[in-house]
Specification:
single chain; about 325 residues; alpha/beta; Aldehyde Dehydrogenase, Chain A, domain 1; Aldehyde Dehydrogenase, Chain A, domain 2; 2 domains; six-stranded mixed β-sheet; five-stranded parallel β-sheet; 12 helices; 11 strands; about 15% strand
């Protein structure tokens, strides 16, 4: 087995997804994932897995192996500690590790231990030798028994502090909580913004949780766009959050705007709870740039086009850290 075999396996996985994503082969896995984690509806799981297919086009994979100088397999093993906020969110890190020619040990999230093992199983169907280069565990107590050369981990700010200390003597990429925002004025074309706000119930770091708007901003179009996701109010977990947040605002006399499945409120925070979309008013471009600069370490993206935030290109690396380049230097 060599890198070309791994590239071919990912190309075959793309073909497999395209051919079978709406068949019981995949749909039964999505149903199992939803049973484990009600936030992972079958529709959300399908969307997540389908978003991976552009990464596995052969010309792209060949250009990556050339750009990063990937020539052969390594004995290096990389531990990937998965987050569980949206379906298979850690799959990009796993793909990077395998494409870099390294072995991977995957610590699955307790909220997301169905889809990633399935995708890796399908991948190994197209290259049996990969099985010996992939190790899976959902037991955090096994980490001390694993032998690895570097770590990528994603979690909350508190877990990131723990990871920084625990893996202080190992090369690592530690990612903390981040979110995304959009800058609007009354002339901005917001077509597709509803997907960027609401997809995956707004739980992803690439979801827009806050709008920066001028003081005279007209929210009518935002309200119209968000109607697309009004059906979220039929989802019991989402509805519980919505009702709770609405009650808190009413009891505390906090003004809000009802917009489909979202509650819009003026705030000074860019992070918002489930079912709430914050907005911050800016007075001038200078004021806007100053506010964005203070939030730089908390931002995953500042959206300047809408509808594709949850479909990042392979090289749109999380937190702006080139994962492939880092792996090549481990």
């Amino acid at each position: 087995m060599d890198i070309n075999d791994i590239v071919q396996a990912f190309v075959s996985l793309k073909d497999d997804i395209n051919a079978n994503i709406d068949t019981p082969l995949y749909q039964n896995v999505f149903a199992k994932a939803e049973l484990q984690n009600p936030w992972f509806t079958k529709q959300q799981c399908r969307c997540a897995v389908n978003s991976f297919t552009p990464w596995f086009e052969r010309p792209l994979l060949n250009s990556l192996t050339k750009e990063y100088g990937i020539r052969g397999l390594k004995d290096k093993k990389i531990l990937v500690i998965c987050a569980g906020n949206i379906p298979a969110v850690a799959f990009h890190d796993i793909v990077c590790v395998l494409l870099a020619g390294c072995k991977v040990a995957v610590k699955l999230s307790s909220s997301d231990s169905v889809i990633i093992p399935f995708l890796l199983q399908r991948l190994c169907c197209f290259c049996n030798e990969l099985q010996s280069r992939i190790e899976l565990t959902d037991d955090k107590n096994r980490l001390k028994d694993l032998h690895f050369d570097a770590v990528t981990a994603t979690g909350s700010n508190s877990s990131a502090l723990y990871f920084e200390k625990y893996f202080a003597n190992v090369p690592h990429i530690i990612r903390k909580s981040r979110t995304s925002v959009a800058v609007l004025d009354n002339q901005t074309d917001i077509t597709g913004i509803e997907d960027d706000i609401c997809l995956y119930f707004g739980l992803g770091c690439r979801n827009i949780s806050c709008l920066f708007v001028p003081e005279d901003y007209d929210f009518t179009k935002i309200k119209q766009r968000l109607e697309k996701y009004s059906y979220y109010l039929d989802h019991h977990k989402y509805r519980n959050n919505y009702d709770y947040q609405q009650a808190v605002m009413i009891m505390n006399n906090i003004p809000f705007i009802q917009a489909g499945c979202m509650l819009l409120r003026q705030s000074t925070e860019i992070f918002s709870p489930v079912s709430v979309l914050n907005y911050i008013c800016y007075e001038s471009k200078e004021h806007l740039h100053a506010m964005l600069k203070t939030q730089q370490d908390n931002l995953q993206c500042t959206a300047n086009a809408f509808g594709k935030m949850q479909q990042p290109a392979f090289t749109q690396y999380a937190d702006g850290v080139d994962t492939m380049r880092w792996l090549m230097n481990v």
